[in-house]
Amino acid sequence: MPKTVHGLAAALPLANVDTDVIMPKRFLITITREGLADGTFADLRFHDDDTPRSEFVLNTHPWHEARILVVGDNFGCGSSREHAVWGLVQLGIQGIIGTSFAGIFYDNARKNGLALPIVSPEVRDQLMQAATHEDGVSYTIDIENRVIRMGEAELPFDMDDATQTAHLEGRDDTLNSLEFADAIRKFESRLGERQRVRVIQ
């Protein structure tokens, strides 16, 4: 997982973008993670005949190369589908800056290395406005120091300690559980012994 995310930022000012908008359910039929980039924002990116919608920001120059999104409130609400995060990552999105994210979406993003800095509405609006500049603007999300760099400016963001550690150390829930492997085995051994005693009695 990256300790910093750097790249062109695109503005997506829509509020309450749910996981069905991010990854429509018709793209959930695959049994692997492959090919989900095509489904990401599909109804916003494409017409019914699969031709690109010229008005959608990620279809326009220079934002077709965006690596960071600045989004409206409550991004990622709706269902728990992890496919939404997988698709965003496959599309090349490495960071999403917003004021709030749905809890399950936030957890899925952490597990998959997608950085979600949480900023104040004022900071979000400042970043959103700058991202619309016709030449494009690049931001750096510094996870270790919890700041977003935009030119000479350093803007603070919130990220809980567990999520920050997951990004900095490349950790996930499985690795965290393995730290307690010895204690788990001891517990299982004691549990098995108690069950054997009950059988004998």
Q: Pairing-aware structural class of the strands and helices?
A: alpha/beta
- pLDDT average, as an integer? 90
Order of strands across the main sheet: 3-2-1-4-5-6
- Give me the CATH architecture of the largest domain, please: Alpha-Beta Barrel
Looking at the structure, the CATH topology of the largest domain is: Aconitase, domain 4
How large is the count of helical segments? 8
**Which residues sit in consecutive blocks of at least 5 with pLDDT less than 50?**
174-178
Name of the CATH class of the largest domain:
Alpha Beta
Give a description of the structure.
The protein has 201 residues and is α/β, with parallel strands linked by helices. The chain has 2 domains: 4-170, Alpha-Beta Barrel (Aconitase, domain 4); 172-201. Helix content is 36%, strand content 14%. The chain has helices spanning 19-22, 42-45, 83-91, 103-111, 121-131, 161-169, 173-178, 181-200, and strands spanning 4-12, 68-71, 95-97, 138-142, 147-150, 153-156. The protein has a 6-stranded mixed β-sheet, with helices on one face. Strand 2, helix 3 and strand 3 form a beta-alpha-beta unit.
